[in-house]
Amino acid sequence: MKFFRAALLATALTMPLAAGAAYAATPADALVIAQNIDDIVALDPAQAYEFSAGEINANLYDKLVQYDAADTTLLAAGLASEWSADEEAKTLTFTMRDGATFASGNPVRAEDVHFSFKRVVALNLNPAFILTQLGWTPENVDEMVTVEGNTVTLKWSGDFASAFVLNVLAARPGAIVDEVLVREHEVDGDWGNAWLNTNSAGSGPFVLTDYRPAELVRLTANENYWNGAPAMKQVLIRHVAEAATQQLLLNSGDIDIAKNLTSDQVAGLSGDAIKVETFPQAAVHFLSFNQKTEALTPPAVWEAARYLVDYDGMTQTFLKGQMEKHQAFWPKGFPGSYDETPYSYDVEKAKQILADAGISTPINVTLDVINSTPFTDIAQSLQAGFSEAGINFEILPGTGAQVITKYRERTHQAMLLYWGPDFMDPHSNAKAFAYNSNNSDDNYTATTTWRNAWAVPEEMNKEVLAALAEADQGKRYDLYTDLQKKVQAESPIIIMFQAALQIAMASNVDGYVNGSNSDFVYYRLVTKN
């Protein structure tokens, strides 16, 4: 009976999703998701760089160390059962987990780790920079990643603490692939890249058994998963671009999860059969002032600005469910985050700060913003709030490409944008928000500090580098907390919100995990009651 129901469901999912069509109810041992997945370019973990690809790979592959479904804030043992660090020698030595196998049945070996890292470096595709920042090159990777028996030793160059390196290894290109299986499918020296873009070769809780671009992804449970077989025997992700169609399918019981509903649609859901869960996301949204604009250089303007943002008014109305108030550069839900929100909308206090500093008003400023919701709505709220204290924003809407190009060229005055980390380590954002050692125009740097022409105080620059090199994890997080407090209070970057994701699902679905970024979406613990 289970086979019949699964087959019937699979047939339904390959049919056009016309309104009013009748489908079988989802089986008890299958999770059915409607989601826009047309962003997928590649699924090979050495190439995948899109959000949807990250979600899928998180369920197909393990890493030496990883942020697991059971606690996405805790770096835990993965395919390595233990490890030790030598900070002076800049090495980490990993002992491989006994008894772990790939979904193919092949044992997970230390040699697979060497192969996996070497192919990322050799292919040098989109996410390779995450590993190559450790000083790994095609010429030296055999010396930097060595195998002896059941252990793997990794070396790095640069003043990095082992804690930073561990977070790098927990990122997407740190996925360990089955060397034996991948080599069987290598064509013309491509390291199995073409095959891995439509198949999987991991040791994770699921196996990729069907992928049709912009149509369907089917994952099948790995019954021999070392960390326990998933309850869901299948996960079927159907490409449904239209939010209205997702809502229709959820209301009719034809899917278990709708990933892309609008806030209005979420607000309109009712009944005991559907629930909505909110998951904080990694992107932080901020207002920033270009220090090439003289009127925006006084620190009193930065301080006053923090009291002219109607944080609660926005998050309780048009941003409800989409963003939450967050005022530090490292997102809530990540290890090392600073979650205090000391600033609130207070026009009189802002006026007093400006008056005490002798700042003359009005100040007229252009504000660049992406011409779509919710960015234009945020800009209009800022325009209204700041005008109360004599700071007048002229909103300049543009396409994402236009706004970002202007930002990179440092030709804006004020900018409304967002930022997300490349990997789960505080340095990823500390470098963006608290470091700028060379503020010259000819030193382009992909950080919000440089793009706003903010010459970061040398003391803060040194603290960023000290945190990067700090071997003690507790002390390291203390340094990042201190940096977040300083940027929060003493920079021309006003961090306002952290994105949140509302996901609607059938009320009988439990254990769905959606961490702070796409690499932390897990189906392993899902059950249906």
Overview of this protein structure:
It is a single chain. With 529 residues, this protein is α+β, with helices and mostly antiparallel strands. The protein has 2 domains: 2-259 and 507-528, D-Maltodextrin-Binding Protein, domain 2 (3-Layer(aba) Sandwich); 281-501, Dipeptide-binding Protein, Domain 3 (Dipeptide-binding Protein, domain 3, Roll), CATH 3.10.105. The protein has 19 helices and 21 strands. The chain has helices spanning 2-13, 51-57, 110-123, 129-132, 141-144, 162-169, 179-184, 193-196, 243-252, 263-268, 299-306, 311-315, 347-356, 375-387, 400-409, 427-434, 448-451, 458-469, 473-490, and strands at residues 30-35, 65-67, 75-77, 80-86, 91-96, 145-148, 151-155, 206-212, 216-221, 234-239, 257-258, 274-289, 323-325, 363-370, 391-398, 414-419, 493-506, 509-510, 513-514, 521-522, 527-528. The strands form 5 sheets. Strands 1, 8, 9, 10, 11, 12, 13, 14, 15, 16 and 17 form an 11-stranded mixed β-sheet that branches. A 4-stranded antiparallel β-sheet has the order 4-5-7-6. The chain starts with a helix and ends with a strand. The relative contact order is 0.15. The model is unreliable at 1-23 (pLDDT under 50).
